[in-house]
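Private note to self, pasted from the team thread so I don't lose it. C-alpha cells:
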C-alpha cells in the first residue's frame, strides 16, 4: 500500500486530488485540513474511502498520531491571499511546510503546490526564471520550495498558474473565476480592481490534478495554459454586473511557459473562456 497524505484535502484543488487518488485501491489516503477555507462536503462522496480525516492545522498534528510516516505527501494546504497585509499568513504557510516535511518517510516523496507568485512582476516565465515575489504569499512559497529542496530526498514542485474550476469558493473571494461564478449565480455585482487591466494565465483544476498524479520526476514544473487573459475581458464574457474599485499593487501581466510539462505527455484540456461560457 502507498500511504498518502493530502494537506488541504477538503479544499478546492485538494478535494479533486483526493477523489482521483482514492480510485487506486493501492492508495491509502489520509487528509488533513483545518477547514479554514475548505469544506468537508467537498469530499463527502469519498469520505468513507479515506484512512482518516483530521480537521486541524498540519503544524498542530503530533507526529505520534500519524506513525508510521507517509510514502507520499501532497502538500496543498496554504493561506493563498496575494493581497494579505502583514506576515501572519506567510508565517503560517512556512510553519505548515516545516511540519509536514517531518511526516515524510526518509525515502518518501513530497509533491508541493507552489505558485507563479514566486516570480512577481515578470511577463513571460519559465522554471528557470528568477525569484522576485512582490507579495508575502509569493515569498512564503519561495521559502517553502527552498526548504523542501534542502530537507527532502525526493520531491516534485509544481508552480500553478491561476487555477479555476468546480468548488472554487467565490463567496470567500478566492480566485477571479470563482468570484465570477458566485456573483453570476447569485445575481450580485462584483468589484473589479485595477480597472480589470491585469493579465493572468488560467489553468483548469482537473488538469492540475492530472499533472500532480502522473508526473513524478524530481524536478520543478509550471502548470498553465500558456495564455494570458485580461481580467475585464473575462468579466465581460461572463455577463456578470461589475463596478470598478480601487487599484492594488499586484502583478500586471504573467504568462507561464508549460513546454517542460507538456514534454511529459501532459496537456491542458479546458480553457478559462470555455469554462465561463458554460456557467
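Design output:
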Amino acid at each position: 500500500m502507498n500511504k498518502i497524505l493530502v494537506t488541504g484535502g477538503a479544499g478546492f484543488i485538494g478535494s479533486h486530488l483526493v477523489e482521483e487518488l482514492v480510485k487506486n485501491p493501492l492508495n491509502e489516503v489520509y487528509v488533513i485540513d483545518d477547514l479554514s477555507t475548505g469544506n468537508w462536503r467537498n469530499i463527502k462522496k469519498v469520505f468513507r474511502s479515506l484512512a482518516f480525516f483530521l480537521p486541524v492545522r498540519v503544524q498542530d498534528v503530533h507526529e505520534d498520531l500519524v506513525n508510521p510516516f507517509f510514502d507520499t505527501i501532497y502538500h496543498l494546504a496554504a493561506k493563498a491571499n496575494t493581497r494579505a497585509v502583514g506576515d501572519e499568513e506567510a508565517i503560517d504557510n512556512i510553519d505548515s511546510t516545516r511540519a509536514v516535511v517531518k511526516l515524510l518517510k526518509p525515502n518518501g516523496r513530497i509533491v508541493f503546490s507552489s505558485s507563479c507568485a514566486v516570480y512577481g512582476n515578470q511577463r513571460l516565465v519559465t522554471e528557470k526564471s528568477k525569484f522576485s515575489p512582490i507579495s508575502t504569499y509569493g515569498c512564503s512559497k519561495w521559502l517553502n520550495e527552498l526548504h523542501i529542496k534542502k530537507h527532502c530526498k525526493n520531491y516534485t514542485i509544481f508552480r500553478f498558474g491561476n487555477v479555476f474550476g468546480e468548488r472554487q469558493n467565490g463567496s470567500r473571494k478566492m480566485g477571479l473565476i470563482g468570484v465570477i461564478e458566485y456573483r453570476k449565480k447569485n445575481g450580485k455585482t462584483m468589484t473589479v480592481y485595477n480597472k480589470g487591466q491585469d493579465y493572468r494565465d488560467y489553468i483548469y483544476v482537473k488538469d492540475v490534478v492530472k499533472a500532480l498524479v502522473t508526473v513524478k520526476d524530481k524536478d520543478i514544473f509550471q502548470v498553465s495554459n500558456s495564455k494570458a487573459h485580461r481580467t475585464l475581458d473575462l468579466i465581460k464574457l461572463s455577463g456578470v454586473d461589475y463596478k470598478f474599485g480601487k487599484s492594488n499593487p499586484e502583478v500586471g501581466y504573467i504568462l507561464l511557459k508549460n513546454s517542460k510539462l507538456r514534454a511529459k505527455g501532459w496537456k491542458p484540456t479546458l480553457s478559462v473562456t470555455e469554462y465561463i461560457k458554460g456557467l
